Amino acid sequence: MGGVFSKKKESNVTELQRNILQLKLGRDQCKRRIKAYNNQLDQHKQMAKELLKNGRKDRALLMLKRKKFVETQMARVDGQLDKLEQVIADVEHAQMNNMVLSSLEKGRDALTEINNAYPVELAQKILEDSEEAAEYQQEITEMLTGQLNDVDMEDVEKEFDELVLMELPDAPETEFEEVKEKAGIKKKVAEKRTAVALEA
């Protein structure tokens, strides 16, 4: 029963995360210390003014010396704060670079895997097969829908002209009537061709 309560939780925090936390704690402590120094500076200055008013020059001078000492300490802590903030910024920048490089590496690996799945030769074969299948399908569609190519269309027009000539009445007896009839026939043939072309 004691074993249940004595188990320690395993931490998911890495050593790097602990170090970053330590840096940030140090930074926060420096900020608190600077704030305390600012309060001390104000107090020492105020006390020096009061002591000077009361005629205690030696004590006022001592307060100003303490104020100067606090200013020196504050400058030192402020320098440490600057260094800590610079290190934190550098670490965060390095983490970002590491994340970007890791992402680029994963992207490269994924792209390589995809490219290996479909080599260039296979892609070319797929494209060629697709083109052949499309051409074959087009031929079947043309056969089923009855679309005619240029050669077939010429044959149809020739046969149509022959039919029109067969339906023409016998030649007239006079030349004038013959010329008039030919003009009418040509006109009818042209009209029928136009009508057939429009229907197609």
UniProtKB/TrEMBL annotation:
Q: Which terms in the GO cellular component ontology are assigned? A: ESCRT III complex; multivesicular body
Q: Which residues form a coiled coil?
A: 27-94
Specify where it is mainly localized: membrane
Compartments, as annotated in UniProt: Endosome membrane
A Gene Ontology biological process noted in the UniProt record is: vesicle budding from membrane
- Ranges that cross the membrane: none
Q: Supply the alphabetized keyword list.
A: Coiled coil, Endosome, Membrane, Protein transport, Transport
The family line of this record is: Belongs to the SNF7 family.
Question: What is this protein identified as?
Answer: Charged multivesicular body protein 6
